[in-house]
Amino acid sequence: MKISKILIFFWVLPFAFAELRVGFYNSTCESAETVVHDVLQRRFSEDRSIAAALLRMHFHDCFVKGCDASILIDSTTNRTSEKDAVPNKTVRGYEVIDEVKKILEEACPSTVSCADIIALATRDAVALAGGIRYMIPTGRRDGLLSDPSLVRVPGPSLSVAGALQFFTAKGLTLDDMATLLGAHTVGSAHCSFFQNRLTNGVDPTMDPALELRLLQICGSNSNSSDPSVFLDQNSSFAFDNGFYKEVMMRRGILHLDQQLALDNMTRGVVESYAANDSDFQTKFAAAMVKMGAIDVLLDDEGEVRANCRQFNNPL
């Protein structure tokens, strides 16, 4: 078992993040973080895969217009939302955010934003899966736009250089990218996301035993039957450095994941994390705090939704 780890990352917060602060709700909704934790603890006991689901939701939200909970908006007959963009079709975990929001609206109406709930829920899910429990600043407001045409996230078949363009566009570095992709240590992927690695002949970048196993699982994949596999085949539900150990052995499932260990730009980071779980955990926490501050809305720039699935004044 891992020893519980709690770190405060004031030192990673540049001046631009100053208006977000740890303990933002201490005076306005003292129970906010406790409510999030309690809901996540129960949900995690029922479904350990919720950690991966929330990590993906948080990432997909922040990489569009910023961390503003725009991914939570439901489409209507008049308007399609981000939630229905193709890259978000397999995002899940919305019901967890709904449950937290319902409790907090009863306790502290119109106070805790949906964007902050995503950030806090993701943090707690990581800790419940065995990762570091980091302190994350709050104070985000919810966005007023959810446009599927704006959804552009790095795909699994990209090269390291290709994926890096998406991260640098959001103010993140190469090391941030290699670190944040470590979230795949608790993730899974449908066969359709890596089928091309199995159907174009022998892939020299993949361990032959893994390739055989994936062929058995995925077979002749079709849209009507699209099984999923764990991205870390060894410690699938544990938030640890197992992902990096796997890709070092050419056991990365997704093309981009495996390229992290093969590309000279990121190989050193992968080797370091594979050898030192504590280093990975610390750097991952810092990268999550940094990602969670991408283009956040503050004060009167957004709203605090009463229902995370719709704007307060829907058109």
Automatic annotation (TrEMBL):
PROSITE patterns (UniProt xref): PEROXIDASE_1 (PS00435), PEROXIDASE_2 (PS00436), PEROXIDASE_4 (PS50873)
Residue positions binding heme b: 184
Gene Ontology CC annotation, any one: extracellular region
Domain Plant heme peroxidase family profile per the UniProt entry, residue ranges: 19-312
Listed name of the protein: Peroxidase
Cofactor requirement: Ca(2+); heme b
Function: Removal of H(2)O(2), oxidation of toxic reductants, biosynthesis and degradation of lignin, suberization, auxin catabolism, response to environmental stresses such as wounding, pathogen attack and oxidative stress. These functions might be dependent on each isozyme/isoform in each plant tissue.
Main location: secreted
Binding positions for substrate per the UniProt entry: 154
Reactions accelerated catalytically: 2 a phenolic donor + H2O2 = 2 a phenolic radical donor + 2 H2O
Binding site for Ca(2+) 2: 185, 232, 240
Disulfide partners: 29-108, 62-67, 114-308, 191-218
Active site residues of this protein: 60 (proton acceptor)
